[in-house]
Amino acid sequence: MEIGIVGLPNVGKSTMFNAITKAGAECANYPFCTIEPNVGVVPVPDERLEGLAKIYNPEKVTNAVVKFVDIAGLVKGASKGEGLGNKFLSHIRETDAIVQVVRCFENGNITHVDGSIDPIRDIETINLELIFADMEAVDKRMDRAQKAARADKKHQVEVDALLKIKAALEAGKLASSVQLNDEEQDMLSDFYLLTLKPMLYVGNLSEEQLKDYANDKNFKALSDYAVANGSEAIPLCVKVEEELASLEDDEKAEMLELMGITEPGLDKLIKASYKLLGLMSFLTAGEPEVRAWTIKIGTKAPQAAGKIHSDIERGFIKAEVISYDELIECGSLVKAREKGLIRFEGKEYVMQDGDVVLFRFNV
To answer: Which of 83, 189, 204, 315 has the smallest number of CB atoms closer than 10 Å to its CB?
Structure first.
């Protein structure tokens, strides 16, 4: 799963990417510094792994991961080829979700492409370019669908769905705002519109703004916009996160305590991004390894087993399951068994976030 980090030039995208991945992506105060997208795979923070590690004392602890892609800054007219234009849009199209970094801080030494700070204007600049690109894609698909509908009426469902989406786009709304029924969704399952992608907003604040972000006018405007559009806004100071990323764990904890912050903003962002993709983790535990495995919400037990190895899915017999909280409360798997807390689940069991699982199989 890939999450594209997008935004106007000079909003802090590459600096945030550096802090997330420590990958050293180039960062500078001029537009289009990032031309080819930088890619970084980062662990999803999960305190439950630490809890299991205390019980099992494993040789290895492995977090779930999510992939971030730092994409070049977008400007007005990108859908018509301005700036990096279509190249930028093609990079977004390859991702599964979008994180928009929005500048909320004032700093005369860092130029803004539009000359002033206005989070909503900046979001609408980006969203409009995505909408324009999608309108072109819808028109092309519509031509094919209408021809197909004349030969086979079942394709009229596709035409009707495209007409709904086109009307929303022409009204300046994202395709994700359109309600499609199951049949319409099936017909368009291979149609990857930019504005159908899940979207999360990050407000890049100054250190002073971060201390009271709930009352900051720029972040409040951003947050209200995100909520109104069924999304979420994460407050963080990219400069602070970059400094935190360079510290050892004890130094990081000390800095967070001094700032009155309980959790780094980037941890919140990574967790929110994981949730944005409709993902969750089940856990496996033993002396060799404690590990979080990524699955889609709603995944059944055999398919979850297949994440570990295809042979386990093919020969699935049952899953021995206990919730993380119950296992931690018992202190060991032996005590959990004594209390009858281990459940035996079959092929129709829908996995839950934080399930600690042992799969039984026979190949």
So the answer is: 189
DSSP string, 195-213: GGS-EEEEEE--HHHHHTG
Q: State the virtual CA torsion across 68, 69, 72, 76 in degrees, nearest 10.
A: -70
3-state secondary structure of 159: helix
**Confidence band, pLDDT 50/70/90 cuts, at residue 139:** very high
pLDDT value, residue 230: 84
Q: In the predicted model, what is the mean pLDDT of residues 32-56?
A: 78
The CA distance from 262 to 256, in Å, is: 7
CA 284 to chain centre: 23
Structure token pair of residue 160: 């009707």
Residue-wise pLDDT tens digits, 287-315: 999 999 999 999 999 999 999 999 999 99
Q: For 8-17, how does the pLDDT look when each residue is reduced to its tens digit (9 = 90+)?
A: 888 888 888 8
- Rounded CA-CA distance 347/349 in Å is 6
In single-letter form, the type of residue at position 272 comes to A
Please state, in angstroms and rounded to a whole number, the distance separating the CA atoms of residues 143 and 328. Answer: 58
CB-based contact 42:66 (threshold 8 Å) = yes
**What DSSP assignment string belongs to 18-45?**
HHHH-------SSTT---SPEEEEEEPP
- Across the chain, what does the average pLDDT equal? 86
CB 12 within 8 A of CB 31: no
CA-to-CA distance for 17 and 223, rounded, in angstroms? 21
In whole angstroms, give the CA distance from residue 126 to residue 93. 14
State how beta strands 289-296 and 60-62 pair.
parallel
- CA–CA separation, 265 vs 274, rounded Å? 14
Closest by CA to 63, choosing from 245, 293, 323, is: 293
Q: Which two tokens stand for residue 133?
A: 């690109």
**pLDDT single digits (tens) 340-351:** 999 999 999 999
CA angle 145, 149, 150 (to 5 degrees): 125
pTM metric for this prediction:
0.79
Helix, strand, coil shares of the chain, percent, nearest 5, are: 45, 20, 35
Is residue 172 within 8 A of residue 131, CB to CB? The reply is: yes
